[in-house]
Amino acid sequence: MKYLANVSTLQFFSDKCTGCGRCVEVCPHGVFEMRDKRANLIDRDRCMECGACAKNCEFSAITVNTGVGCAAAIINSLIYGGAPSCDCSGTGSSCCG
Amino acid sequence: MQTVKFVKKETPRWVSGVIKTPAGAVSRVSSDWSRTDMLGMIKSRVGAYRMHYTVPPGLYAVGEATRDSDVFVTANYKLSFDIVRRALKGMDAWVLVLDTKSINVWCAAGKGTFGTDELVRQISLARLSEVVSHGRIILPQLGAVGVSAARVHKETGFRVSFGPVEARDIPAYVAAGYKKTKEMSLVKFSMLDRLVLTPMEINPVMKKYPWFAGAVLLLFGLAPTGILFKQAWQGGMPFLALGLAAVFAGAFVTPVLLPFVPFRSFAMKGWITGLLITFLTMQAMGGATGQSALLLAAIYLFFPALSSYIALQFTGSTTYTGMSGVNKELKIGIPLYIIITVASLLLVVLFKLREWEVL
Question: Which residues are within 8 A (CB) of B259 and not within 5 positions of it... i.e. 6 or more apart?
Answer without folding.
Answer: A1
